[in-house]
Amino acid sequence: MTVDVASLSPVALRHLIRQGKFTQPTSGLAAGYTQANLVILPRDLAYDFLLFTQRNPRPCPVLEISDVGSRTLHQFAQDVDLANDFPKYRLYRHGKMTKEVTSVADVWQADFVSFIIGCSFSFEAELLAAGIEVRNITEKVNVPMYNTNIPLVPAGKFQGHMVVSMRPIAQQDVPKAVQVTAAMPKVHGAPIQIGQPATIGITDLAHPDYGDAVTIKPGEVPVFWPCGVTPQNAIMQVKPDFVITHAPGHMLVTDVLNATLKYS
Amino acid sequence: MTVDVASLSPVALRHLIRQGKFTQPTSGLAAGYTQANLVILPRDLAYDFLLFTQRNPRPCPVLEISDVGSRTLHQFAQDVDLANDFPKYRLYRHGKMTKEVTSVADVWQADFVSFIIGCSFSFEAELLAAGIEVRNITEKVNVPMYNTNIPLVPAGKFQGHMVVSMRPIAQQDVPKAVQVTAAMPKVHGAPIQIGQPATIGITDLAHPDYGDAVTIKPGEVPVFWPCGVTPQNAIMQVKPDFVITHAPGHMLVTDVLNATLKYS
Question: What is the domain class of B121-231 according to CATH?
Answer without folding.
Answer: alpha beta
